[in-house]
Write a structure and sequence with these properties.
With 187 residues, the protein is mainly alpha-helical. It has a single domain (8-186), classed as Arp2/3 complex 21 kDa subunit ARPC3 (Orthogonal Bundle), CATH 1.10.1760.20. 67% of the residues lie in helices and 3% in strands. It has helices spanning 8-27, 43-53, 55-71, 78-96, 103-133, 144-149, 151-172, and strands spanning 30-32, 37-39. Helix 2 runs antiparallel to helix 3 (55-71) and helix 3 (55-71) runs antiparallel to helix 4. The longest helix has 31 residues, at 103-133. It is globular and about 50 Å long. It starts with 7 loop residues before the first helix and ends in a 15-residue tail after the last helix. Mean pLDDT is 90; it is low at 180-187.
């Protein structure tokens, strides 16, 4: 996208990736009893969106798709997911923004994205939800100890999302990125 404007192509691809992130977050749910959360593979599409669409698309896909999945079955996690995964997509997009086809900056970008998942959920589960749970019982579901237990599954989820997102980006890299090229101009 040479003039940096959001196009119809961006909207269509973002909507598709939001749907794919929601579905893949719902389809594979491995429960983590300590926190009431779950392992999933939706981060693949969040990382991919940041790499291919840039920060705005990454933030939209990350903030909306997985939160839709949480709304169906795990609604208490919608705020944590929307913030954490939205930030994940935004950071991946910002870091990879000027990478061109170089893989190094993109690997770093998705590593930061995966780390954002680990740190974001830890912050919500160890501190934010226990604090909110003091006045809103629905949020009284986690503790520091439970959040520590979820660090490893969240790290694995971050790695799966990073590797999967990079693989998808590599598969479509020949088509250009919507961050740099106008998809509609390519036919």
């Amino acid at each position: 996208m040479k003039d940096k404007r959001w196009t119809v192509a961006h909207t269509l691809v973002s909507a598709t990736l939001i749907g794919l992130a929601a579905v893949t977050t719902m389809v594979i749910r491995v429960p983590i009893p300590a926190t009431g959360g779950y392992f999933n593979i939706g981060d693949i599409f969040v990382s991919f969106a940041g790499l291919w669409l840039g920060p705005m698309g990454g933030a939209l896909v990350g903030g909306i798709g997985p939160a839709i999945a949480d709304a169906i079955g795990f609604p208490v996690y919608v705020p944590a997911t929307a913030m954490t995964k939205g930030l994940e997509g935004l950071l991946v997009g910002l870091i990879a923004r000027n990478a061109g086809n170089r893989i190094g900056p993109r690997v770093f970008a998705v590593f930061v994205g995966g780390l954002t998942v680990v740190v974001g959920y830890f912050a919500f589960q160890a501190y934010i939800y226990p604090f909110l749970g003091q006045t809103i019982p629905a949020f009284a579901i986690t503790s520091v100890g439970a959040a520590v237990i979820e660090v490893i599954p969240n790290a694995v989820q971050g790695v799966v999302g990073a590797v999967g997102g990079l693989a998808l980006w590599k598969a479509v890299a020949g088509f250009g990125t919507l961050e740099k090229d106008d998809m509609t101009a390519k036919g």
